[in-house]
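One chain shown below:
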Amino acid sequence: MKVKTKEIEQLLLMLLKKLKEKDVNEINVETDYYWLVDWDDVEDFNSDSLDLGVGSFCDDWNHLQKILSGEYEPNVLDLQRLSTLINILGKTIHKSEVTL
């Protein structure tokens, strides 16, 4: 399957527009630590045990903010950080009274 970056951009913009329409300008995230599955293990369905790590939402968000400020250059690992951020934000919104 091929995924076009333009379509990813469109989807993200659509979802952010929906949040704006609902007047969601900030999201209070209470989650910090989460299970982190190594990229090599995420598609290995034959393994009897996964080597889980622990990630930190706060660390990821702080790192992503440094990209926004120009302090860091983005790299491929930042896609993983951003995907975790989006996942946790989705979970937080789902538990709230906001519906998209």
Summary: The mean pLDDT is 92. The first helix runs from residue 5 to 21. The chain has three helices and two strands.
